[in-house]
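Is this the right way to post structure tokens for a design question? Let me know if I should format differently. Anyway, here goes:
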């Protein structure tokens, strides 16, 4: 195989709850993963990042995303870009499994703010934004 690229195959029926793929693919700047949520499941908490934006793509099924406390349906084929500092949580309010692709950035090793600052500490203001609950 030529150098400078990598390739893998992950059929949707083999996607587990979370498949972090950046490191196995050798990515240096692009972070991405597949997430499968069964009916009623979702992110364990609503969170936000300090400077990183994220992109969520619904690959299979119809899911939901909470953005600053507002729940939005995101059917298959929907792409949502979320700016930093927007509280977010991804989940599944439907009766069938949903599969998402999540894209973000991997901070450079010498990023001046450090990875934790880039991503945030993941601890939301619980009074402002609750945990994921199926509606």
């Amino acid at each position: 195989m030529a150098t400078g690229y990598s390739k893998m195959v992950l059929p949707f029926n083999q996607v587990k709850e979370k498949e972090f793929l950046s490191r196995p693919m050798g990515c240096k700047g692009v972070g991405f993963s597949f997430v499968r949520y069964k009916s009623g499941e979702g992110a364990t908490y609503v969170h936000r990042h300090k400077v990183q934006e994220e992109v969520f793509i619904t690959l299979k099924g119809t899911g939901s995303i909470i953005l600053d406390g507002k729940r939005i349906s995101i059917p298959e084929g929907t792409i949502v870009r979320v700016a930093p500092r927007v509280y977010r949580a991804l989940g599944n309010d439907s009766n069938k499994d949903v599969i998402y692709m999540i894209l973000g950035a991997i901070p450079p090793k010498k990023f001046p703010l450090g990875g934790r600052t880039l991503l945030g500490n993941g601890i939301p203001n619980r009074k402002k934004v609750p945990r994921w609950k199926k509606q």
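Format looks fine. Someone answered above. Worth noting: Strands lie at 18-20, 30-37, 54-60, 62-67, 70-75, 79-82, 88-91, 98-105. Residues 48 and 87 are 5 Å apart (CA to CA).
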